[in-house]
Structures are given as C-alpha cells and as structure tokens.
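Q: Could you fold this chain for me?
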Amino acid sequence: MSTPFDKELEERLVRYAAIDSQSDEDSAASPSTEIQYDILHLLKQELEDIGAQDVELTEYGVVLATIPGTAPGPTIGYLAHIDTAPQFNATGVTPRVIRGYNGGDITYPDAPDLVLSPEEFPYLAEKVGQDIVTASGTTLLGADDKAGVAIIMTAARYMIENPDIAHGPIRIAFTPDEEIGRGVDSKLPEALAADFAYTFDGAAVGEIEYESFSADGAVVTIKGVSIHPGLATGKMVSAIHLASKIISTLPQATMTPDTTADREGFIHATEMAGDAAEMKIKLILRDFERDGLAAKGRLLEQVCEAVQASEPRAIVTCSINPQYRNMRYWLETDMAPVDLARAAAAKLGVDPVSVPIRGGTDGSRLTEMGVPTPNLFTGMQNIHGPLEWISVQDMAKATELCLTISELATQEPG
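A: Sure. Below is the predicted structure, expressed as structure tokens.
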C-alpha cells in the first residue's frame, strides 16, 4: 500500500503544517499577515535547494518557480495556497501521524472528548491500513492547503531529479490569502505565464473540479442612537436590536449553509460585532449562477431597507463587493485541461469525479482572469476545524496525478 512518495509527503506536510500561516481578512496588507512569510521564505529556499529555476518571492507574496521542460508541450502551472483559514485556531499546530490506521475511532491527545469516527465520516472507513495525519485536537491541521504544497513540492523534486521523464515547462506558484479570497493578485496571471494551470486544493481521491460557487462579500453597518440608558425613553435606538432584526429576517430555513446542499446557494453571516451605538455584520453570498447570486444580494439589500424604514433615526448601510465567479463559465468553453486531468486519472486507475465545489479556489479567479485552472484532489477532509485529517496515500495518488498530467500533456496534439 506504500508508495515511493509516502515518506517525503508525510515529512513535508508535518513540517509545513506546524508553521502558523493564518490569513486575516481585516488586514489590508498583502500578504494579510506577516507570519505567512515564514513558510513563503522556507518554500523559496526549498525550491532553490532542489534545483528549480527562476525562483522568486514577489512583492505581493507569491513564490514562483520553473521546472524546465524535457519535451515539447504546453506550459502548465501548479498552484497551492500556504495560508490557513481564519475560522479556527491555527496557532501551535502539532501534527501527528497514525500509521496503518486500524479502522476505529481516532481520539486526540489535547482534546479527550473529541472523536473522529468512521461512522460519522465514511470516507475515513475507506482508509484502513493507510497513514492518517491529524492535528492534536485544539487546532486545525492545515492540510488545506499545505497538502497541496507538499504534493507539488514532491512532484517538482521528482521531476528535477528524473530528467528522463517527459514533460513540458512547469510553473509553480504558492499563494497567500486564498482563504480570504485574495490569493490571486492582478499581476499573477502574467507572472505565471502558463497556458493552463491546476490548483491542488480538492478533497477525495478522484475529484477533478471545474465548477465553483460565484461569490460576493457584504458588510452591513447599523448606526443607532446612543444615550445613557437611564435617559433613553423614546430616544435610544439600539444598533444591536436592529442587527438582530436583520439576521432574523433573512431566510433561516432555506438559505443558510447548514440548510443548503448540492447546487443551492446561501447567505451566511460570518461575523457580527459592535455595541448598542454601532454594529457591523459581515456576510458572504454564494450561488452557482450569476442571477442567483444577484438575487441574494437584492434580498439582503431589501431586508436592510426594510429595517431602515422601520427605524428612520438609525442609519443602515449595505455594501456588496464581488469576490470570485464560477470557473465553469470559462472552462466549459474549453474543457481541454479538465479532459487531460481525467485522462491522467484514468491512466492511474482512478475514477474521475466532477462535482460542484461549494466554495472557491485560486483557480476560480485565475480562470476568470484568463488562465484556465481546474481544481484537483489532495485527500484533505473536514477542513477548517479540529477534525481535519488526510491520508498520506491519498496525497501520493495526487502526486502521481501531477506527474501523469505533466507527461500526458507532451503527447497532446499541438
């Protein structure tokens, strides 16, 4: 069951995951946090050490590198993001490896009540005998997307050390701030200089994704009327009450992440903060279609307008900004990168599966900006929380997929 890549992948993931690289949507910097440079500098050095060419760390926080081609073929980009999600603790990550998983419940040394069960997560039941990597219970693991980083680094090292393997020019990019929707700087498509690309940022083995959510972000600000509560009769307007009214008026049973699935979109309040004088609500809007996304934006605006009308002494503002769009809009006009990945999977005996991503990737933005970029599996599961885990052998299969895509591309006509 072991592969030639297992040891390297395990060592890389454990090394990378232990580095705190959480992004921060409230920061205007790029990268949004200084700590992301810790892993960016490490990866730059590691790429130089394995003999990659044109290695650089750009002013917008992307590590780029080239593996020269050994045969005529298109220039392919491989990308992964180095930041971890802001939604859960990512400081002090202690990765651990459970070798030869026995099929039972997995418990956590730093959180005795936490249990990862194959009954609750059936994909885990398929990994008996494999090597499972988790965190220790109080943090996320960060396999999203340090597994992708480890996969690309392992494949890159292998290609450089085995020049007899046929592949065209390979461009590598490790991006910051993907988790906050800012991983693709406007300069990246030109700097990447790839005919097409792939993000290694997917989940179960076989997933080859070319459809993602379209996404907008919204900020609602409510300014009330503040006054001493002892003198408030007929005068105070509580921003907290109005913010609660907005949340309770939005559809709860049919349009939240926990009540939707498959191709259904949602409106999700991710943060609400402030006081009686002023409140701020951050929301994300998601849908697979442009008109569905626009309808959700109009609904949010209408709710805000209704609450404003109910209390004219308050000031309610709603700002909606685009984040990314469904990559399908562009990829469906040229499915060659998707078909190439499917052919590579089939050659490895993997059944390719394409399901809509209930989220987005750097590939969503890159595709929109002119670089077709489907998303490929890594094996990561239960991301953004303490139950996050991944199989080393799944990562090895993704590494083989990267190498096979690269080789098959040299055999494509033209």
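A (continued): The radius of gyration is 23 Å.
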